[in-house]
Specification:
This protein has ten helices and 19 strands. The chain has helices at residues 29-37, 47-52, 76-88, 119-139, 144-167, 217-230, 246-260, 340-343, 356-359, 366-379; strands spanning 16-22, 42-46, 60-66, 93-96, 110-113, 179-186, 194-202, 205-213, 234-237, 240-243, 268-276, 281-287, 293-295, 302-303, 321-325, 331-335, 346-348, 351-353, 389-396. The strands form five sheets. Strands 2-1-3-4-5 form a five-stranded parallel β-sheet. The longest helix has 24 residues, at 144-167. The chain is globular, with a radius of gyration of 23 Å.
Length: 397
């Protein structure tokens, strides 16, 4: 436990990774343990102190508001006042615990994290604090020469933030004699609004998805961290576990996103798949995402069409689950909307058409297919406004 610090002295002499604001007399032990295990600097402050004093918050990276303090109570008006102060300072803020009926939809870079999901706080701090440190340094520079110099430093640090984000992507793909995988991840900036994962759930199932946060730069990148932590493929109870169907995964994710009440139309698209590695049955569910494409040697490319709106807009949104029996030689292509101009995918009277150049890639093994696609993107000057581009390709051997 940590006693409340009435004045954030460290913010005057150095950067504080996390500022904890609570209504009780003790810092929540699970937050303290998570921060100290990750070697973050942190301070704790009573909400009365925060509201009553003019504090220097420029050197604070992330604010964590404990909404369910053990020995105190933070009412809705006080909470919204605190969030607004932090929002005006562009400080990423985490609401830790139940927010009740409080409308938090007016604020940017705001995450709501349940009590049992304390580790999500670490993801937010890692990616936001790098950005905050560089922003603080840049704002403190007065001369144009210094600003130019620190702008370069900001770019370098954003590269670091992008590297942190890539750490959350799968490092190894579950290739085998039956399956070959290939992926590309091409952010428009140093950080991306796309996120994907390919995970072996058990001996007979592989779960994989591609999600695209609507938006750009750091807000979209922060939302991908939420998506990564919120997509639950299975649930373990004692010695048993349940594998969630694609429909359940998307429905649960939509509920979590809706409860965030994100500002600035920060919604997301997603397509989730469950592959039975023994039967080759593929089940899938999509939410506002471009249609996945199935390619085999005999038929024209086939879009896997199911209905489903963007995530996070409607609490009672309806989604549809589909399935397809894969065969030897089949290829599946899943992509974010930034890839569409280069693929040329379009539906015309239920028929799917590719651009001629991309179509020539589809007969190649998936590793070569993705490599050719990356070259096509890098050589193209067609896009004036760049978008994040991600693509997953699966081939049945």
């Amino acid at each position: 436990m940590s006693k409340i610090i009435t004045q954030p002295e460290e913010t005057k002499t150095g950067f504080t990774d996390a500022l904890i604001i609570c209504a009780g007399e003790m810092t929540p032990s699970e937050i303290q343990n998570a921060l100290e295990n990750n070697k973050f600097t942190w301070q704790s402050m009573h909400f009365n102190t925060f509201l009553s004093k003019e504090l220097d918050l420029e050197n604070v990276g992330t604010a964590i508001i404990d909404t369910e303090s053990t020995n105190g109570f933070l009412d809705a008006e006080q909470m919204l006042e605190i969030i607004e102060m932090l929002d005006n300072k562009n400080i990423p803020t985490v609401l830790y615990g139940n927010t009740g009926n409080i409308n938090t939809g007016y604020f940017k870079m705001l995450n709501i994290i349940e009590k049992q999901s304390v580790n999500q706080i670490i993801s937010v701090i890692k990616i936001s604090n790098i950005y905050r440190k560089r922003i603080v340094e840049l704002e403190n520079q007065k001369s144009i020469a210094a600003q130019n110099n620190h702008a370069q430093q900001l770019e370098n640090q954003l590269k670091m933030a992008g590297a942190v984000q890539k750490d959350f992507l799968p490092q190894d793909l579950p290739n085998s004699d039956k399956f070959k995988w290939a992926v590309t991840f091409m952010p428009a900036d140093w950080v991306s609004g796309d996120i994907y994962d390919i995970t072996r759930i058990d001996e007979k199932h592989i779960g994989f998805y591609l999600a695209d946060a609507v938006g750009h730069s750091m807000p979209a990148a922060l939302l991908t961290m939420f998506l990564k932590q919120s997509i639950q493929m299975r649930q373990t109870t004692g010695n048993a576990y349940k594998i969630f169907s694609p429909l359940e995964v998307i429905q649960n994710l939509n509920q979590k996103m809706f409860s965030q009440h994100l500002k600035g139309c920060q919604f997301a698209t997603c397509c989730y798949f469950l592959l039975n590695t023994e039967t080759l049955m593929l089940e899938y569910c999509r939410a506002g995402h471009p249609y996945p494409i199935l390619i085999n040697g005999t038929n024209a490319p086939t879009p896997l069409q199911t209905t489903g709106s963007l995530l996070g807009i409607f609490e009672d949104a309806q989604f549809e689950q589909g399935s397809v029996q894969l065969q030897s030689g089949d290829k599946l292509i899943v992509y974010s909307d930034g890839a569409e101009p280069f693929m040329g995918t379009k539906l015309n009277k239920e028929a799917l058409h590719f651009e001629t150049e991309f179509k020539s890639f589809t007969t190649l093994p998936v590793k070569q297919l993705v490599s050719k696609f990356e070259t096509l993107v890098k050589q193209s000057a067609e896009m004036e406004e760049k978008d994040d581009i991600s693509l997953i390709a699966l081939e049945i051997q």
